[in-house]
């Protein structure tokens, strides 16, 4: 049976329900799409092969967690994320993160999962996403951990905040000894569980879709390095060039225009594949190829509230 973890009495908010209460225990391997995995109540990672879209093979053990799951009182559900065709990140739900070299998966008895890194990282979490990449000739795995934590300062809200911890684990070579260590840890905080949170494929950034914003928290022991130019750039943060929203029928793009611009100063050109917006005597405000073709003869534009 699956290692199911029911919500406790102190996990009563909508965010707890969205993060842990509706958790899908079945993990799809994107690199081997006929294979799904789950963690069972004995702490074994079980593999199921799907054949003919409907038939399931018998569950097969590929890995066993070295810890006793039920020994931890405040544990969350165990979570698995496949970082690449050879690498797996695994949380046992107690606050410990494992980085595992799996070799080629889904190939039957030859599959052998080997722990190359494991460390206690504080309070329990689930793995939201992970990626494996090579930068400057060094292999790294970046992992995004999700927690719902008590917030003593939040008197008017739910009394909790959401933490996303972005951990980068990198291969270190010392005197011929290859091992993996934590290279960087960054923490973001927000007030709602994201609908989507992922690390960019090269490990350079995060993509988060959430009802409420997330902000980086400054580490107590590590001041953020920034020179004066960076500080100025941050202070003079500009609004996005445009906003867009989409339904099944329409795409609506909103562009802010400077004051004292009239309708006669604006030129908008639509074509099936492109859009072009320019203001009088200025370089184009917006131009480029659209993601997909549009019915350009039905496209139109208006000025709202003179801006």
UniProtKB/TrEMBL annotation:
Signal peptide: none annotated. It is found in: Cytoplasm; Nucleus. One of its GO terms (cellular component) is nucleus. Its main location: cytoplasm. InterPro entries: CS_dom, HSP20-like_chaperone, NUDCD1. Residues 237-307 form the CS domain. Keywords: Cytoplasm, Nucleus. It comes from the Eukaryota. It holds the Pfam family CS. This is NudC domain-containing protein 1.
């Amino acid at each position: 049976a699956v290692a199911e973890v029911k919500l406790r009495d102190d996990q009563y908010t909508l965010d707890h329900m969205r993060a842990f209460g509706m958790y899908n225990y079945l993990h799809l391997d994107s690199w081997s799409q006929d294979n799904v995995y789950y963690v069972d109540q004995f702490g074994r990672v079980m593999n199921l092969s799907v054949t003919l879209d409907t038939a399931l093979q018998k569950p097969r053990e590929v890995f066993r967690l070295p810890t006793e799951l039920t020994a931890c009182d405040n544990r969350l559900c165990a979570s698995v994320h496949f970082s690449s065709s050879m690498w797996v990140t695994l949380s046992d739900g107690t606050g410990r993160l494992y980085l595992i070299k799996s070799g080629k998966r889904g190939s039957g008895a030859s599959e052998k999962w080997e722990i190359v890194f494991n460390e206690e990282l504080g309070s329990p979490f689930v793995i939201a996403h992970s990626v494996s990449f090579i930068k400057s000739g060094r292999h790294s795995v970046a992992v995004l951990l999700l927690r719902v934590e008590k917030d003593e300062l939040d008197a008017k809200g739910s009394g909790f905040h959401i933490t996303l911890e972005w951990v980068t684990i990198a291969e270190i070579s010392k005197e011929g000894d290859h091992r993996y260590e934590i290279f960087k840890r960054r923490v973001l905080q927000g007030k709602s569980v994201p609908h989507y949170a992922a690390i960019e494929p090269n490990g350079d950034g995060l993509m988060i879709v959430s009802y409420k914003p997330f902000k980086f928290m400054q580490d107590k022991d590590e001041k953020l390095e920034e020179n004066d130019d960076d500080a100025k750039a941050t202070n003079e943060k500009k609004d996005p060039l445009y906003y867009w929203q989409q339904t099944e029928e329409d795409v609506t793009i909103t562009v802010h225009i400077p004051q004292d611009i009239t309708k006669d100063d604006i030129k908008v050109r639509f074509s099936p594949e492109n859009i072009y917006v320019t203001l009088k005597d200025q370089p184009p405000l917006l131009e480029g190829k659209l993601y997909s073709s549009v019915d350009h003869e039905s496209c139109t534009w208006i000025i709202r509230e003179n801006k």
